[in-house]
Amino acid sequence: MGGGCDPGEHPAAAIVRELDEEAGLAVDDLIELFEIRDEHGSGQLITFFAASWDGDETALPLAEGVKLQFLAPEGLEFRTIPPFIRDGINRYLATRHA
Prior knowledge:
By secondary structure, the protein is α+β, with helices and mostly antiparallel strands.
């Protein structure tokens, strides 16, 4: 998903809209977690959100994406993820296991 906020749209609303538009995934319990800046790259600021979903990802009507796959945290170890995004994921996971 590569969408962004429409003019005047709050990031949480954009995420809910983009998940619905691109994956047919309805999320209504989205929680804003924290922001991380890519200090060693583009300088972009990323806001992390969390939500739960219990469904079959193979049944989602992907409109713009080629593939959507949910991974357990241990499945991320061998994925190519920018360091600041990996740091954000690890920060979130540390709060879940505390």
